Every structure is written in structure tokens, then in C-alpha cells.
Amino acid sequence: MSSFINLKGIQQSFDDETVLENIDLTIPEGQLFGLLGPSGSGKTTLVKIMIGLLNPTSGAVLIDGKQMPSLKAMQHIGYMAQSDALYDELTAKQNLDFFACIYGVPKKKRKEQISQVAKVVNLTEHLDKRLEHYSGGMKRRMSLAVALLHEPKLLILDEPTVGIDPVLRASIWRDLKELQKQGTTIIVTTHVMDEAEKCDSLALLRDGYIIAHGSPDELKEKSETETLEAAFLYFGEGKQVEV
Ligand SMILES: Nc1ncnc2c1ncn2[C@@H]1O[C@H](COP(=O)(O)OP(=O)(O)OP(=O)(O)O)[C@@H](O)[C@H]1O
Q: What does pTM read for this prediction?
């Protein structure tokens, strides 16, 4: 697999606070990659930098060989933020139609794409409901549907399953694996260990540093632990490791 995302020497400060330090990371094409870390460790800041929403204080991001921010590269990225950026006063279908238009989905493909993404997130029956009548979990699913509309090559999901029940969570993970099989590179941020287990490779983030990087099995092996949680604690004791 060739290198698809390249982060070099990323550092990010807000006023006097340094929230990311010395981030070097390479993610191959087609990987399901997890950024695992506790609240405040810098996951959202890092994904915002990756997709060009935030210019890092220093360092560079290359996606598919293009230096970010690049409009061209951004057109192939689907991003699901932590808070839903949707229109409550519109129905789900109207929301999807609007975003399909913004993302430049060709008019003759729009109907098919909307019904496809609605199926993935299990909202087909609720497409005519206004979002003000949606539950929190339904809105999360809608946000995921929006991120999938333009069939992005790179999908970045910031805590995608927060507020989603276990049955649908499992079904979303099955769909992510299916998208990956079709060639999509996927980056997921999470602080849930059982979700991290499903990733091909993980970067463990703590206090703005990558404290370890590798597959779930490699991380457990290297730390001689049985669970990712224990591995995280092990690497957190000051050992920065590339496995
Ligand atoms: N625009 C900003 N201005 C100032 N500080 C910020 C800004 N954005 C993020 N931070 C700070 O950067 C740190 C990392 O935040 P970030 O949201 O990246 O963490 P996170 O790992 O995604 O957390 P969570 O899991 O709770 O979403 C926090 O201390 C946060 O307060």
C-alpha cells in the first residue's frame, strides 16, 4: 500500500498552549486508521489540520501527494465533525439534496446517491422528517450520510458513533469495513477501546504527542499487555514507541 497521508513535524499552539507537538505520521492508502486518545489529547485538532480546516503553527500535511490546504484534495475528502452541521428546519432528504449540490454530485446521480447513503445509515424511512424531530443519534447518522454523499476517497470521522446505540454502531462499523474494501481510506477518532480494536493501525495520542503507533496486536505485543487499554497506559508512562 502506498503512502496516502503524510504529516511532517506538525506542531499546533493556541495562544500559550501547545496542543500538538512533533507529529510525524504516514498513513497508507486504503487503511482503516484510528486516532485513539482521551478527551483533550488533540484528536480533533489533528484531523482538522489533516483536512486543511486548520493551518498548523508549523509542519506540513500531504494528502495524495498534494500539500494541504488544497481545494482539489478537499473535494475527495468526506468529513464528519463532532458536532452536527445540519439544517434543522429542512427534512433529511432536503439536507442531503443540499449537500449533494454543494459537493458537486452530478444531478442525475443525486437521487441514487441519496438513497444509497440513507440506506447505509438506516434512515430510509425517515427521509421526509424535518431534522428538528430527529433524535441525537439520528442526527449523527445523518452527518455520516452527508460525509458519504460524494463517495470520498478519504473519509475522516470524528467520534462517529457517540450517541449511537450498540446495534447501529455495529452496523456502521460493518459499513466502514465495506467502504474500506472498496478502496476508501478511513480515519476515525475514538476514545472507545473496542472500536480502536477494529482499526488496522492506531496512533495513540496523549497530551498532544503520539506515544505509540502500530496495529492493535503489535501495540499489545510490544507492551506485553492483553488489552489496548493496558497498552495505552504502558506507553503513556513516557515510552514513545514506533512498532
Ligand atoms: N480553537 C481553539 N482555541 C484554543 N484552544 C483550543 C482550540 N481548539 C482546541 N483547543 C484546545 O486543544 C486541546 C485539544 O483539543 P481537541 O479538541 O483537539 O481534543 P480531542 O482529543 O479531540 O478531545 P475530545 O475527545 O474531547 O473531542 C484542548 O485543550 C482544547 O481546549
A: 0.89
